[in-house]
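Retro notes, structure queue

What went well: the backlog is down to a handful. What didn't: a couple of records were mislabeled last round, so from now on we paste the full input next to the output in the thread. Example, using Flavin reductase like domain-containing protein from uncultured Acidimicrobiales bacterium:
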Amino acid sequence: MAAWLGAPGADVTPGADFSDLVGDLDYPMMIVTTAAGGEKAGCLVGFATQCSIEPPLFAVWLSRKNHTFRVAQKADVLAVHFPSPGEAPLATLFGGETSDEVDKFAQCRWREGLGGAPVLEDCVRWFAGRVIERIPTEDHVGFLLEPVQAASGAWAGQLGFQSIRHISPGHEA
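Corresponding output:
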């Protein structure tokens, strides 16, 4: 181990500097929806990325405190939506409310997709992915997805974190 890293267990935490650094980034925001056991759920996420080209794989992390996480733990398929700036009201709905208290799907247009995962009809860019692995990481769990269906829709820009950071989370991360 490099000497500059310190001894194992040494306090080298970046603290506020790291929080400030990542808080300034403009991560693409996504809406994840899923269904299992007769229950639908969805939330706004920023922890997600493509992680393999061949075969194509995508990973999305859900907070263990989130209602969507509890449903996703039992689900076979997650739908990942990529809202444009014009689709920001969906981000507000799925990021600013919790399914513990509100039926988000009663407030938007959706249809049942593969594996029962809700597909948001007003978000034209999305894919459905089969869950092939769950990866525990401290306060979030990663869901490794194999895309099985996708709609690329017309490109209308990407909704980034900086444009929605004013949304008060429906659920603490």
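Agreed that this is the format going forward. Reviewer comment attached to the example: The chain is about 15% helix and 35% strand.
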